[in-house]
Amino acid sequence: MLLSVIGFLAALYLSPAGTGVEKQLEQRFLFWARSKIGQGPGLSKQIKIFAYDDETAASEGDFDIPLTDWGLVFKALAERKPQSIVVDKIFDKAHPPDQIVAFQKMSREWHTPINIISFVTSEKVPYRTEVPGDRPEHQIGTIAPGGLDQVPEWLTSMKPKYFYGAPQTLTAASLGIFSGIGHAVYELDGYLQSIYKISSNVFVPHVSLVAGHALKIQKQRIFNGDHEVPTTDDGRILVNVDKQSVYAQRSYGMGALIRRARSGKPITVVDEGDTVILLPLMYTGNTDFRETPHGSMPGGYLVTAMVNSSLTGKWLKSWNAGIPLIIAGGLSGAWFAFAFSPLMIGVISLAVIGMSVVVCILLFSTVGILLPFALPLASFIVAAGVMFGERSRRAQVSQVRIEGELATAQIVQNSFFADKKTCHPDLTVTGKFFPAGECGGDWWGHCPAGPGKEYVFIGDATGHGVAAALVTAVSFATISAIESFSISQGNAENPKPSDLLKMLNKVLFDLGNHTGVMTFFVGLLDLEQNKFVYSNAGHLPPALLPISSEDPRIQGRLPLKNLSAPGSLLGMDPDATFNDQEIELKAGDRLFIYTDGLIENYSTNNKNPFGKKRLYDALIANRDLAAKDFLSSVIKSYANHIDGEPPADDTTLVVIDWKRHASHPPA
User: Fold this and answer.
1) Which is it for strands 221-224 and 215-218: parallel, antiparallel or unpaired?
2) pTM listed for this prediction
3) Which residues are CB-neighbours of 116 under 8 A, at least 6 positions away?
4) Distance of CA 391 to CAs 335, 346, 377, 385, 480, Å?
5) Torsion on CA atoms 573, 579, 580, 581, rounded to nearest 10
6) 415-658, superfamily in CATH?
7) Given a cut of 50, is residue 591 above it in pLDDT?
8) How far apart are CA 532 and CA 456, in angstroms?
9) Contact 583, 654 (CB under 8 A)
């Protein structure tokens, strides 16, 4: 499942849809965030922009000026000794021969490099004249002095294009009118091709690379002066464009420039060493708008942005790390889904998303690195969701299995509890067990110990649940084995209660690591000898309720007697000793034995436990009822106190009556 998620997102990343996510979502977001924190590339102070805007078109009465006026503009600008002039114009308009001759003559008077644009197509354009391939800036020997071995594979393998621009009367290298001609082809996704191949030895760079520092290709990389121009694997450049307002605020109208050039006045806004950019297509109806990460803006501003990068070295680098990041995101999300709770998974996911986005914004804003994040984060989130679903499914399957096992264990444990007749019709033993979970750590029972004799047991393993239930199972098995052995041997002398505790203590201790610790009470009812012999291993003492409140065995203010006896817990010490105690057994006697859950449990609203006082009050108040009714009344008092909530600890109550019926009314 995880591999399917990662594989799908990796395939999506490589598909046109993935490219759309990167361009439309990531780039737009990063460009927007960068501008919000004021970290855009800005515009070099050495760049001066002049735009042929609506005001200029209105003052000139036309959408262009004569070629001779262009010559005057170039001459006026060249007199200010700028580093170079870039004109976002093809100059392919037909001009009168006399203007061409005059323009050629004027070009000898300026010594500033002037660079114009051309366009490149994949198909031949009818009625268009191709730019001659003899220009030095387009020759492989100029661009790559080391020869074709230095040229990137993407450029040498590129299908040759067609190169169109101004007529040869203006572009012929021999004329020396324009020092550089470069393309200005912009793609819709924020990128442009750095260099186009025209033939095996002719290459056309973008005009910004022609107009900037010396362009060189070395070791299959493009350099513009001292800095490398980062490109994608297919030679494209991500334009480091700023908001449109950055360029608009720094633009001058060409109207004043043209008028001063005609009158021979200096262009004082241009300083020596500046780079002048002329944008002749900025008037309404002819502006070439292009879609960028900042929205639609004039194509001339994109040329300006490229020239700015060429001058400042502020290029954008797009890391092709999408596939590794998608894999890392998917694996990380899967690990988090299995390692943490649902709440922590949510918190971590939000933290990962937030930190990843912040890191990508900082990388993009400070060092110009474009790191893909949308699909890697989607990989993290989807993988975490899928794996958490798998984790939940496994947990559900495991829960169903555990519940089934617990149900089986509960059925088995219920079989431990007494549901058999006693050794005498006048002896009744009645009990009730309330586990805190599906299985509990309490156990009670009784069994014959020979003619006129009956064992009664009650135990409470440490804790509750499955572990405690296993301890009671061991106790049940041990007592049952002793019972079966005694019956099979026909032994009239059954083990004394203390002997039973010693044997059971040894068995539980051998379980190891004190895992078999429990309290235990064993009583032997000898109905022929009218005595009750008992031994206690740390269990709560049973209560004796004679039928008469004046019974001499009762001492103290309460009409009952606690049958206390010393003894340590079972399973703690293999050499522990246990003593037998004996009390006279009379007709009408009632014994009440229980586990500590009865007096220690409490409700959420009532933090006070049921306690011994409430228990004794219930025993005394209901002492005249028959065993089952007596037991039900005590349970009702207990349940009312804990508000009917599930007990926090296992609870067991057992009532033993000897000849307590209508023939023996209470005194």
Assistant:
1) antiparallel
2) 0.64
3) 87, 89, 90, 91, 165, 166, 178, 180, 181, 207
4) 11, 15, 20, 10, 43
5) -120
6) PPM-type phosphatase domain (3.60.40.10)
7) yes
8) 10
9) no
